[in-house]
Amino acid sequence: MYGGAFDSFEGVHCTTILCPFEKYNTYVGVYDSLGTAISEFTKQFTRFLIRGIRYSGGNAPSPPQAEPWNSIEKLEHEVEVAGIYLSAHPLDDFKHEVKYATSCTLDALPRYQKDETNGIKLRLAGVISNVQHKTNKAGEGYASFTLQDYHGNFAFNANKELYRNKRNLLEPGVSILVEGTYGKDTLAQQR
Predict the structure, then answer these.
(1) Residue 49 Cα to chain centre, angstroms
(2) pLDDT one-digit tens code per residue, 59-107
(3) Which of 34, 40, 115, 170 has the fewest CB atoms within 10 Å of its CB?
């Protein structure tokens, strides 16, 4: 369900199915309970082969009202379930910026690990994922994270200075534009 199983049903969306309802953890729990009751009813009366007996436990209640997930939440759940974006990509809202403001894609970064390209300025756009906030022995914060675009992903480390200045951006699902100087072993962030 988190991957969008009910997205094609009119008037029903995942948040409706997965939101708490009365005594159940989720609305789908109502149907689980109803299914169990019907199963028990069927077991009790099957051996008697009596015609015309019907389950009269009542109808399932109408689904609760719930706000649909925003596009980022929906995409995060898709990736969580399927491992890939299914319905869209988080950068779709920034297609124009990605096309005209970047100088290379993330899958092309390894080509810049040559001596003749050392120190070249690059502009990258992507969505942050796999963020790990850490602390060194001196108690200073730093982070490692993955930046992902349409073509691939690349692992980065945010040193203590960058971490101190841009920590608020280092959250999963945040779309960023990075400009920096690429070195053989580092991408020194400048903006």
Answers:
(1) 51
(2) 656 666 777 767 777 777 777 777 777 778 889 989 999 999 999 999 9
(3) 115
- CA 112/CA 135 separation, integer angstroms: 30
pTM for this model (two decimals) = 0.61
- In whole angstroms, what is the distance from residue 149 CA to residue 155 CA? 12
Collect the ranges in the chain with pLDDT lower than 50.
49-51, 53, 55, 187-191
How far apart CA 90 and CA 107 sit, in angstroms, is 17
Rg (CA), the chain: 25
Helix (H, G, I), strand (E, B) or coil at 143: strand
Taking Cα atoms as reference points, which of 128, 158, 125 lies closest to residue 146?
Answer: 128
Helix (H, G, I), strand (E, B) or coil at 148: strand
Nearest to 7 by CA among 88, 62, 84: 88
Q: Assign residue 11 a region: left if phi > 0, alpha if psi is -120 to 50, beta otherwise? A: left
Query: What's the rounded Cα separation, in Å, for the pair 72 and 89?
Result: 9
The backbone torsions φ and ψ at residue 40, rounded to the nearest 5 degrees and listed phi first, read -65, -45
